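Final report, section 2: Outcomes. Of the targets proposed, histidine kinase is the one most frequently requested by collaborating groups, and we therefore present its record in full.
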Amino acid sequence: MNLSEIARTTSFRLAMVFACFFAGSSLLLFAFIYWRATVFETNRIDALITEDARTLASEDQDAILALINTHVTGDFHRVGYAALFTPDGRRIDGNLEAVPADMPIDGKVHVVQAVRTDLPAMGAVEVRLAALRIPNGNILIIGRNGQYMVVLREVVVHALTMGAIPAMGLALAAGIFLAWRTQQRLKDVHRAAERIMSGQVQERLPVAGAGPGDELDRLSQLFNGILDETERLLGEIKATGDEIAHDLRTPLTRVRARLERTMKGDMGLEETRETVGKAIGGLDQALAVITALLRIRELENSKRQRGFSMLDPTEIILLIEELYEPIAETKDIAFTVDITPVTPMFADRDLLMEAVGNLVDNALKFTPPGGRVTLSLGPREGDGATVIRVADSGPGIAAHERDLVFSRFYRSDRTRHLEGTGLGLSLVAAIARLHGLAPRVGDNNPGCVMELVAEGTTAVRAPVAGATAV
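The predicted structure is given below as tokens.
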């Protein structure tokens, strides 16, 4: 990867943004430090000037002249100012050419323009001076120039240069490294995506770590979840296609054999009618499978709630009791109903009745004569969630098969000898999911328990006032 590619990456640009932000912050910080240091040093110098002026002014004039001479001759850097003037402004001694114009004689430090006697070529420069009168009326001036500010500025700029340049270099290097690392990870993701697009659906996007990871890891984990679900759905489609071929081949083969036998014309009228009737029955069985599959597909893909309304589940249970009680009596099965009042549900009456009816029909089908089937409605202990339960005393469902019974065409080994398509519970699961109900399978010892649970987090809610149902 070349530098132009690195410069176009988001991570490099972010690193540069942060580097510029750091540089700006550093400039502001050093400006603040310089300002505070300048204020502190200026106050310190002013205090020294004021103190020196007051100390000299308390001496007699001879002592003042001696101290001025010592001050001037000992000032190798030529930053100090000291001079004594007569009341009319004539210089008696010192390194100031004249009393600066408009210089207040108040003992306080002022910034003025002054000329040194030992450096006349410099002309007037800005200095800090304090002037006051001594007892004999002469004017004493003590001060310093701004050289200390130049030194202070050089120190601050040097510190800024020594700190900011390496920091900017490190930021640039970090930006290049992060951009390169991100680009490598994106290339790995791109290669994995190309393999997936070529048909290797078992391939997954790479994840750097086992933990939560960064944004790329979380995005890869999200898409890997989508790929897992897609692979599962593709597997279900393949399995469904195989099951459809298997379940339709047998009745269609029988229909073909019976029609071929009829075509030979060696059967009597009654036998021909019987053969044609069986062929029609076989076709009806094949159509029932196709119709059930289309019905399940429609329900699984549907988000429509046009037929939904608030209803009391008790009405559904009573209708199911009225419909299946005669069938149970015919099969010598004790069919009982147990109802505890629950809160109304937002549901499609016909679909919910179809789902509960399928559960009861299955229970009656697999329960032997003399057995019992119980249909109950009530709130669950603890959270009060509505539960529709169908319990029977049939062969039951093995623990390892309970997660599979809602799959299309799945039939337990214990019930393969009984007539059926293996789509009834798939239809129940599709209706349950449309209503936000959770289908559950349990053990009744003996027999099986099927439940539809209106969990609080999944149950379909009635639309708010003014909303339009889809």
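The chain has three domains: 1-203, 215-301, 308-453.
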